[in-house]
Amino acid sequence: MDFLSYLTMKGKESISPSIVLNSVSNLPRAIAYLHEKGSDSVRAFFDNDEAGRQALQGIQSSGIKVEDMSQYYARYKDLNEYHVAQRTELKQVIPPRKRGLRR
Hints:
Layout (H helix, E strand, L loop, with lengths): L1 H9 L16 H11 L3 E4 L5 H12 L3 E4 L10 H15 L10
Parallel strand pairs: 1-2
């Protein structure tokens, strides 16, 4: 769901090549793939929990430079929760459109 939130926020055209883990248990495979492809830096959008912090450390300890994007949604559990909160705030600011004919 976090990747879909990212696509909604940024649009499909603005994204870089991406790896979606679905579970931090897939991290070793992702690290191997990044090394195989010669990727030396990534942006990580992990959850703000212990598993997310461990995944971040795992990538960093593999020698890949990581830009930790979770700092931008630190008050939230994950990117999706941040996205939902932002959309809710926006709905409160923009009044609903009235339907029907104007006179």
